[in-house]
């Protein structure tokens, strides 16, 4: 899904989903190997992701760099 889609459509698809981040961009490398959950989609069409662990901050990440975490989906 592209971030050019309407926010409501993006939110309907992503919110509540477990994700991992494609880390080919240098600014996303810090999320390598971390699993998160999409909390919301902001007005700019970027996903607000909260990662597991002690860091409970929300990070806005373009949806084109997110991948669904199928392992988390099948485990629940």
CATH topology heading: SH3 type barrels
- Tell me about the largest β-sheet: 5 strands, antiparallel
Based on CA atoms alone, the radius of gyration comes out at 12 Å
Number of helices: 2
Structural class: alpha+beta
**CATH architectural name:** Roll
Give the CA-CA distance, first to last residue: 24 Å
Q: What is the CATH C level class, in words?
A: Mainly Beta
Global outline: globular
Structure overview:
- This protein is α+β, with helices and mostly antiparallel strands and 76 residues long.
- The chain has one domain: SH3 type barrels (Roll), CATH 2.30.30.
- It has 2 helices and 5 strands.
- It has a 5-stranded antiparallel sheet.
- The radius of gyration is 12 Å and the shape is globular.
Secondary-structure blueprint of this entry?
Elements: H1 7-14, E1 18-21, E2 36-41, E3 47-51, E4 58-61, E5 66-68, H2 70-75
Antiparallel strand pairs: 1-2, 1-5, 2-3, 3-4
For this entry, give a set of tags.
globular; five-stranded antiparallel beta sheet; alpha+beta; 76 residues
What's this, in brief?
The chain is α+β, with helices and mostly antiparallel strands. It contains 2 helices and 5 strands; from the N terminus they run αβββββα.
């Amino acid at each position: 899904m592209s971030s050019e889609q309407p926010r409501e459509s993006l939110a309907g698809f992503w919110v509540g989903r477990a994700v991992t981040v494609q880390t080919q961009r240098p600014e996303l490398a810090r999320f390598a190997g971390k699993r998160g959950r999409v909390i919301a989609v902001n007005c700019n069409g970027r996903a607000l992701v909260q990662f597991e662990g002690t860091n409970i901050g929300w990070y806005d990440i373009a949806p084109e760099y997110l991948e669904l975490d199928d392992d988390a989906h099948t485990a629940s």
